[in-house]
Structure of Acetate--CoA ligase:
Amino acid sequence: MTIDIFPAKEGQGRIHGMREYQQTYEAAQRDPNAFWDRVAQRLTWFHPYHTVREGDFTDGSVNWFSGGRLNVSFNCLDRHLKTRAEKTAIIWEADNPADTQHISYKQLHREVCRMANVLLAHGVRKGDRVCIYLPMVPELAYTMLACCRIGAIHSVVFAGFSADSLRDRILDCGARVIVTANEGLRGGRVLPLKQICDRACEGLAKLDSVLVVRRTEADTPMVEGRDHWLHEAMKAQRAYCPAEWMHAEDPLFILYTSGSTGKPKGVLHTSGGYLTYASYTHETVFGYRENDIYFCAADIGWITGHSYIIYGPLANGATTIMFESTPMFPNPDRYWDIVERHGVNIFYTAPTAIRALAAKGDQWLEGRDLSSLRVLGTVGEPINPEAWQWYYDKVGGGRCSIVDTWWQTETGGMMITPIVGANPVKPGSATLPFFGVEPILVNEHGERLDGNDVTGHLCIAKPWPSMARTIWGDHERYLHTYFSTYPGYYFTGDGCRRDEHGNYWITGRVDDVLNVSGHRLGTAEIEASINSAELVAESAVVGFPHAIKGTGIFAYVVLQADAESSDHDVVSFSVREQVTRDISKIARPDEVLIVSGLPKTRSGKIMRRILRKIAEHEYEKLGNLTTLADPNVVEHIVEAHHENC
Ligand code: ATP
Ligand code: MG
């Protein structure tokens, strides 16, 4: 039943040594079309493309693999059935550690087909949008893959978002169908998802159906004609659904960015280029092998979960873990418990989680058998060297490769990152560009900074297959955000240093760069230093108007669990000394405020724009707070600031 017009080449992604990295990188630079043409053979195409790439950054319009036909769900499922039917595709690790489910490729295929038929029965057609507001349950994977099977466009909304955030996203993408659950379970707590969904959907004219997963026994009011239990609907469908022949450039999904810098953007990804890149990077960067147990601890509500829990791993026929709970439940050793029980080989998480776990103390790792681990990844923000070292020593036992992967919702896949088996790593550096990625640094005037040992704004000079194609419903914003600042280049919004050996260090958002007495300082470097000070768990620095220096440095500091009662002056002194020692007197914070927590997005990123407003005493102008994980944190910080500053 598999149509092998071009058989997928497996194992083509593994790299052995720095020389091979360089040769491959140079080959991709010399002839990008030939390079990506070869890589794209890893997918199964129903019909070959006629052109590898069309367009460039001059008008921000790029197509990959034009004329080609494929189906993403077919690539993640059907083509594995010949050789991997009984292999576990998804290990579902429920909130309760005693509930684990192994879902084979064959089972996954059947459930996805059923789900696709349910969507068809509810009138969903090619190009329609389906909004998914689900916790980390298997139905989330079924729905995503079912959408791509029939050509519908999914938009996953993280199940921690409020009714207002959900409503904004449903309206923005014009979804006809929503898939949700009666309740969610996370960290032993119950999330009333259906209730939130009902509030979000009030009076929405365009909405046809709400499909409800029964995650708990609880009942929920069902709106007649609109709401349906998903398990009943699926039972009524056959477990076969043909896969649509999609164009390579047909939309695959919409995903909203974290909103760290403002109103979230509905980033649109398409089919052929996205899957090529997600699967190729998953195999190459992690050095993935056929029998690995792979665990990405992100939520599927973020791009990391899309590319590296679902699409990349499943396209590669991998066993991927879907984790419903939090690293702290029932205890702060849940990750290590999972690693031990399932024999995880590759583990991927975010620096914010690493810091939180390190702050809980090493006793949570003691006695755990983590010897199956081979590769550890991080993503989401610069990792401070102290957290890196803890991850390397304590989790990896000094044996594992660490890949610090820099990328964005808009890039679809990892862009600057170490590659397992290729380059030597440096704590805190994302090191070198992936194949086909040409990072460049420019100064404020848009002049290219060549050579090493330079700092500037990070841009990408050449199109890559998984780049976002537009912002849903607002192409002008897309062109304006990414292609107008430095014409001819994709602008990332991040600052970056290329060191004397050509390694890249992300210094933080360009908007966050501090200009202190004429010196440009990145927030990441100062925070890394503060975090290494005694008593400190984590920190965030922002600038504030300063009569003499132009910009002063304001540091918000969260203390370690056992240091919470420490004296303010002691902490302030130790922080200021640390920064002076590590960086210089210029970088020394003018103000240090101890706070109980930092304002973070749901994906764990610090929202410095809020902290900037607080530092400026502009408590009334904090802006959009809808993507905050815990809005109460802001009140506490405002109080602490009001009292002390
Ligand atoms: P918005 O664009 O709405 O403000 P966001 O940028 O936080 O939201 P994401 O796409 O989730 O949304 O985050 C991408 C950003 O995360 C990058 O631009 C970068 O600032 C940061 N980042 C991701 N990985 C790394 C890393 N390994 N090192 C340093 N920074 C990273
Ligand atoms: Mg961004």
